[in-house]
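User: Here's a chain of 121 residues. Predict its fold as tokens.
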Amino acid sequence: MLTALDRPGHLTRAMDAGASGYLLKSATPAETADAIRRVAAGGRVIDPLMRDDRAGEASPLTERETEVLRLASSDAHAREIAAELFLSVGTVRNRFSSAVGKLHARTLVDAVRIAERQGCL
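Assistant: Prediction complete.
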């Protein structure tokens, strides 16, 4: 996969979908050609920048995003989560939105499912 998307979540989803390689568009022509050769020979390629990012970050979510998703997974509503965490409802909704975006989910329910599958919750 040749992409401009450099978030760990994108890498995880691509590899889970069966990609043999993940290379950023910022790679040089020589790096791109080498990656194609290695994948064609049956190997796997992950852009060095992504390997560094993924190794240092087990979860793309912040601690607060993880908290609101964990509470949402137990069927708590935004108002209940806001009261429990001493946040405004708007802040909780912003955290939901941010988590959904980082996990590349379509909905909050999808984000909870993805976070559970990736071990983030």
